[in-house]
Specification:
The chain is mostly helical and 111 residues long. Helix 1 runs antiparallel to helix 2, helix 2 packs parallel to helix 5 and helix 3 runs antiparallel to helix 5. It is globular and about 45 Å long. The N terminus is likely disordered.
């Protein structure tokens, strides 16, 4: 089962054994917030803006329900054709990317 985002391919493949329908709206909100932050542009040296985006990304990744963590993690790491994955790869620093992936990985450890 895939959750569809308007105009895009799947946005995460939840584990059917762990999926809770109540998680779907929260997941969609989290993905929207992640996308919004990744689309922000900054001028060189705008450290305050970059730090704000990093904090907001932390909040959005922490909002992702556990049942959707695996699908989103896979999407961000392996799906090179996905617009969200491309933004994730090219718009933020490696340290920030690794931190956000770590948030998703920690959720998987507690499933």
């Amino acid at each position: 089962m895939y959750i569809q985002e308007a105009g895009n391919n799947h946005i995460g493949q939840p584990d059917p054994l762990q999926q809770d329908p109540v998680d779907v709206p929260t997941f969609l909100i989290a993905v929207n917030r992640i996308k919004t932050q990744l689309q922000r542009n900054f001028q060189a040296g705008d450290e305050r803006g970059i730090l704000d985006r990093r904090q907001r990304l932390r909040e959005a990744f922490n909002l992702v329900p556990k049942s959707f963590s695996s699908g989103l993690l896979e999407r961000l790491i392996f799906n090179s054709n996905d617009p969200l994955a491309r933004l994730f790869r090219y718009k933020i620093a490696t340290a920030t990317r690794n931190e956000m992936l770590g948030i998703l990985r920690r959720k998987l450890e507690t499933i």
